[in-house]
Backbone:
């Protein structure tokens, strides 16, 4: 992928609630049926929109709902789903049609025609005698599935909580209890979040902007303390208690600056955790409901 | 193709080389001029073919850089608001129109004229005072508008790639379009950001794609725009090399490996050396199996006349983090164990630094330049490659991985100074929780199926000794965050780069010590330099602004 887009995690966009459970159940049924039985609705995928407020880079393919329905019937009648999957993402031996360049290039059945009508030698793909109209309907069905490079999760896991709460408690007492208490700042923390991923993210590295305090010792020996607003190698700027801003020219080590970042212990710990530690602590914190 | 010059591209002396060319431009930039090391002009993406971004100019130097001052500043305006002199394209003129220009690529400087671009837009500007001479606007039908790395030039032909996958040739004198040609499929969701690189009578063109689609590099005729050859970076048919490293031909044909950053060129071997992107699907290796997924995440050398691969070296076998190795390789001659070696170097997005013999692809050195990178085992394999730890792909409960998706390094151009022998690169060391969000055993397409939550990032400028692989010095930007932009070094004993505070900063390349700075608010490309009327300029872009600095004696 080219570059990185700013990652802004918005937990309001993904809640693993009732909808997920139903999808998960559906997933289980699908698995049991080897993707053969049910044909899901096209474009039923849910998830965060890609690209934020920017205009869509690639327009959705324009589809005719009636043609999609006729195409779906053909897809079922000719048992295309047996090899290519009910959702066109591949199934029992056949390739995914969703990521097929031949299908993506196709407009009205003209490029899939060769394959459908002639089959592919030395593969399971046999020839089907479809009319131009049928091919066009089939194409409409294929184009009704969303083609998204940030492919949203269709079958997300039911929960991200996979750890051992008891082991998590031990780890917490050893590592976190120096600064935090389950009877004080973390009392009831498990009940504060609808989304467990949000809880895990927030204890690992608190996401809400936490004030970084800074103290400057001027050449005259005065101490000025405020909230760090901006810093580079040349200027440091702080917000004072009365809300005003004050900036200081930096020349190498002068003036002396003392930054008190309350998140530093969290940053330092990142290099020490195992994933199991993290999962266990989350499992433990979830138990702190009251 | 034989060459009529005898001096090495990488020697210190400026020389006049020339191709024996099938066709020659009768005006404008002769392709042989690009064979010169960077000095007065800046005629191609990296300034010259070596990718070093090291200029021979030394009028601005350590003794006077503190007097460097603004010569002029100029703004460019995109879309119809920019009153384009010429308009092309198939769009309605609304989509992505009139966005604020963001100059993130090269600004060419040829014969006193600057040529710059942003997605769908190109401008010419007087290098003496920043006057805009012409503006060209392409009405897009869409495509990922993430950036544009600049243009290429042959004679008075300019070449611009567009997000909707056209290669456009403009008349550099007027901005009028000569022709355009489709270079990749919009329906397959390709998008094209690189600066075309002109070598002799070849316009070398890469593209990008975030779906499960094959990567390819193409060569076009500079005059007619006809396709000369296409090189796929993944196996496309039975018998193709590397197919044995994929689970199936279908997996290989959808395997990614997009070359989306311009490469370098070695005139001694006539090889174009470039990097490729990650395999697809980016986060799910299941559909392609446990093989190496060649030739994704690799440095590849192709003969520019035939498009045939001469060698490759893979820097991330079977990558699962979308960590491209597409970065521009730097070609240099360095002494290793008492022997002069012709090398190609890259600091890959995966946090490892590689030195490769550029004549044959032989591995010379690997070092880990990202201290925090934790996705691979401590031991390299016998080919010098890092070996991934599968549990550090992503997990349902989350896997804490360094680095986050942006990688330890990325497209911002590195630099190599023959004076210090050091390789300079912007580095970020970051952490993210990678969650598996797709449980379908068939995986997810493209970049999907996982979720990443960032957990902090530092940002640095590092100097790496390519002989030892050690980081010799490192400057940490106090405000952390993402990667800073690219780097220029000069014979004036200076290193120029934007920092994370919106400053353009000059440093001593020996130790990173600050020698000059000016705050522009942001720096959006790698600084460049040129010489005009006996005056050396430092040129840098800040979004839609171009700043030129110089010395007044």
Residues:
């Amino acid at each position: 992928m080219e570059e990185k887009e700013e990652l802004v995690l918005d937990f309001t966009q993904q809640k693993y609630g009732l909808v997920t459970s139903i999808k998960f159940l559906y997933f289980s049924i699908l698995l049991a049926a080897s993707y053969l039985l049910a044909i899901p609705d096209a474009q039923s995928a849910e998830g965060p929109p890609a690209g934020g407020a920017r205009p869509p880079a690639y327009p959705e393919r324009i589809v005719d709902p009636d043609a999609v329905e006729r195409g779906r019937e053909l897809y079922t009648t000719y048992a295309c789903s047996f090899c290519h999957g009910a959702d066109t993402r591949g199934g029992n031996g056949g390739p995914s049609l969703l990521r097929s360049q031949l299908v993506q290039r196709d407009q009205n059945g003209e490029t899939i025609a060769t394959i459908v009508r002639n089959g592919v030698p030395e593969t399971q793909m046999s020839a089907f005698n479809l009319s131009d109209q049928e091919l066009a309907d089939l194409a409409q069905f294929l184009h009704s599935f969303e083609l998204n490079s940030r492919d949203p999760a269709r079958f997300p896991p039911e929960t991200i909580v996979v750890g051992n709460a008891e082991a998590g408690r031990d780890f917490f007492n050893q590592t976190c209890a120096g600064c935090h208490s389950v009877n004080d700042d973390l009392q009831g923390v498990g009940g504060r979040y609808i989304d467990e991923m949000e809880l895990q993210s927030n204890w690992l590295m608190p996401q809400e902007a936490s004030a970084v305090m800074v103290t400057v010792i001027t050449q005259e020996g005065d101490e000025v303390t405020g909230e760090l607003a901006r810093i580079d190698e040349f200027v440091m700027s702080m917000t004072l208690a009365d809300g005003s801003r004050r900036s200081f020219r930096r020349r190498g080590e002068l003036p002396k600056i003392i930054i008190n970042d309350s998140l530093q212990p969290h940053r330092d710990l990142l290099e020490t955790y195992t994933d199991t530690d993290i999962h266990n602590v989350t499992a433990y914190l979830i138990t702190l409901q009251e | 193709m034989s060459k009529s010059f005898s001096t090495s591209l990488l020697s210190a002396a400026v020389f006049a080389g020339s191709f024996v060319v099938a066709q020659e431009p009768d005006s404008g930039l002769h392709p042989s001029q690009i064979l010169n090391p960077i000095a007065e002009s800046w005629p191609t993406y990296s300034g010259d073919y070596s990718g070093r971004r090291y200029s021979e100019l030394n009028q601005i130097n350590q003794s006077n850089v503190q007097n460097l001052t603004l010569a002029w500043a100029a703004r460019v305006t995109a879309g119809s608001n920019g009153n384009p002199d010429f308009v092309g394209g198939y769009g309605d003129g609304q989509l992505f129109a009139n966005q604020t220009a963001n100059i993130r690529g090269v600004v060419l400087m040829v014969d006193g004229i600057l040529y710059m671009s942003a997605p769908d837009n190109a401008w010419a500007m007087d290098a003496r005072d920043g006057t805009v001479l012409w503006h060209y606007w392409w009405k897009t039908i869409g495509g990922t508008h993430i950036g544009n790395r600049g243009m290429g030039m042959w004679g008075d032909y300019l070449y611009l790639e567009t997000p909707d996958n056209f290669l456009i040739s403009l008349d550099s004198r007027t901005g009028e379009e000569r022709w355009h040609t489709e270079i990749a499929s919009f329906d397959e969701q390709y998008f094209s950001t690189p600066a075309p690189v002109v070598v002799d009578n070849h316009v070398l063109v890469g593209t990008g794609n975030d779906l499960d689609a094959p990567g390819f590099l193409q060569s076009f005729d500079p005059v007619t725009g006809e396709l000369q050859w296409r090189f796929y970076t993944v196996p496309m048919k039975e018998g193709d090399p590397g197919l044995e490293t994929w689970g199936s031909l279908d997996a290989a044909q959808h395997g990614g490996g997009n070359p989306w950053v311009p490469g370098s060129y070695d005139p001694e071997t006539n090889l174009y050396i470039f990097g490729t992107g990650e395999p697809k699907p980016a986060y799910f290796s299941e559909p392609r199996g446990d093989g190496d997924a060649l030739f994704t995440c690799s440095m590849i050398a192709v003969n520019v006349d035939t498009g045939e691969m001469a060698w490759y070296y893979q820097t991330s076998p079977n990558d699962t983090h979308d960590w491209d190795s597409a970065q521009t390789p730097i070609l240099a001659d360095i002494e290793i164990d008492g022997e002069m070696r012709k090398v190609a170097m890259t600091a890959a997005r995966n946090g490892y630094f590689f030195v490769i013999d550029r004549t044959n692809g032989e591995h010379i050195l690997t070092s880990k330049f990202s201290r925090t990178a934790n996705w691979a085992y401590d031991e390299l394999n016998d080919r010098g490659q890092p070996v991934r730890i599968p549990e550090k792909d992503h997990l349902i409960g989350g896997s804490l991985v360094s680095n986050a998706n942006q990688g330890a390094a990325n497209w911002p151009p590195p630099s190599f100074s023959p004076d210090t022998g050091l390789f300079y690169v912007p580095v970020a060391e970051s952490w993210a929780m990678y969650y598996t969000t797709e449980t379908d055993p068939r995986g997810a397409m493209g970049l999907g199926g996982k979720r990443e939550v960032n957990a902090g990032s530092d940002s640095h400028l590092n100097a790496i000794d390519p002989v030892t692989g050690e980081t010799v010095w490192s400057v940490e930007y106090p405000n952390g965050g993402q990667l800073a932009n690219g780097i220029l070094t000069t014979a004036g004993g200076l290193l120029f780069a934007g920092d994370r505070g919106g400053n353009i900063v000059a440093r001593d390349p020996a130790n990173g010590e600050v020698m000059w700075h000016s705050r522009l608010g942001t720096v959006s490309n790698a600084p460049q330099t040129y010489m005009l009327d006996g005056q050396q300029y430092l040129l840098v872009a800040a979004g839609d602004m171009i700043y030129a600095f110089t010395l007044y004696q």
